[in-house]
Design brief:
The chain has 495 residues and is α/β, with parallel strands linked by helices. 38% of the residues lie in helices and 13% in strands. The chain has helices at 11-19, 25-43, 51-66, 109-116, 159-166, 183-189, 223-233, 278-293, 309-324, 343-354, 357-370, 376-399, 422-427, 433-438, 466-479, and strands at residues 46-49, 78-82, 120-125, 172-177, 192-195, 215-220, 264-268, 297-301, 402-406, 442-450, 453-460. Strands 1-3-2-4-6-5-10-11-9-7-8 form an eleven-stranded mixed beta sheet, with helices on both faces. Bound molecules: glutamine (GLN).
Length: 495
Amino acid sequence: MTVRFGGQVDAVALRNALDAGTGTVKDVVEECLARIAERDGELHAFTRVEAECARARAAELDAKRASGAALGALFGVPVALKANLCWKGGIADCSSKLLANYAPPYDATVVRRLLDADAVIVGTTNMDEFAMGSSTENSAHGPTSNPWDTERTPGGSSGGSAVAVAGGMVPIALGSDTGGSVRQPAALCGVHGLKPTYGRVSRYGLIAFGSSLDAVSPFARTIRDVARVLEVISGACDRDSTCLPLPPFEAPQPADPSRLAGFRVGVPKQCFPAELDAGVRACVESALQQLERIGCELVPIELPHAELAIPTYYVVATAEASSNLARYDGVGFGVRAGSELGLQEMFAATREAGFGEEVKRRILLGTYVLSAGYQDEWYGRAQHARTKILGDYLQAFEEVDLVAGPTSPCTAFRLGEKTADPIAMYQTDLLTVPASLAGLPAISVPCGTSAGLPVGLQLVAPAQEDGRLLRAAQAFELATDHHRALPPMLLGAQA
Ligand code: GLN
């Protein structure tokens, strides 16, 4: 019997089957590569498939099993990586012309931990350039399509990783979430996406966008897999000074995983704004009723400063980005333009040729908000607003255990629909940026479809309560079938 991982088999089940002696890692990897070959022409989730590397790894892991050695927590599981994670086996170009063919000389901490857990990395995935965007259209490689409707975007910026999972090409993938880049595509593609507490997972080797916000974040089809990946990648790291000095995450083992008796779930009215799509509202309202049925008490709450979140985020994130991206000057990394020119002109020519339009917009915005004379007015005020947004949550969590609402104000939009209007694109982050600014763990869980497109329920927990968050998400998952829904293109495909 061979092990087939498509559609419905999760990573933990796959690992356990291999551990029990069923099939080989070689079979798993060949099937994974076949799925990618079959589907990725249409979806374009991957920027590169590292087939030879994956095959060599499979042989190594099959030999390890034959030797009788203990097998890692992700033994034989194929994983895809967003192209902003450094991996010695691949190209971390951040979907930017500026970093074309950048082969990192080291592994990110999360990559090292995946490999130490015996995972098989199969390739790198498409993203908005330097993770700036909400649709995976700002990419030097062209856009990624949503498997639910290939005329639509998968969301972004980690759209490629979301589609690699939603399209049944890998059971798990890593992305990065700065303002919603894992939760929003998870919602739009009908999979789970977890942003852990800021600092729970090392950022070492994640190419920086907004350093006070960036979080390496997994996608998976089941909460059990999400928890397994977090167990593997979390924990103290002395190469990231913002990484919390905590032991690795341990998934909670509740007595009755399907009940949340006595849980108080805060429902902020600010998470149901006028512009919320009616179909999204209906799905999320029925998800809240489902939470009630499994024992939660719904408590209306307020997050009074939520309306400041988008402007605050777009000041803080652009300020940090302008500083982080200053290093791409044609000297230390990536592609150089204008080598025949003087130094300053070479820097300018490199940045002009290498960065896309949205990245340039962010650098200009960030440089402006940090410039002499304007710093207090913009950056200082944004920091102040950020503290207020965190304060709203701290106050809410005096009364409730979790906060719940929609992940995204809309379902998957059409390719090209928002590219000409950056503000409309920024507005799609309305519901994910508040938890990012507050550094809180948050997850998007599939909660149904509207007009044939997936909708995500977002749950937010207090800092370091990633376990509570996953427990609630799992109880919801066990009470519903939404996470099993497959895009039409996968129906009929064997499980
Ligand atoms: N869409 C948001 C932005 O464009 C969030 C991006 C992210 O989380 N990386 O900044």
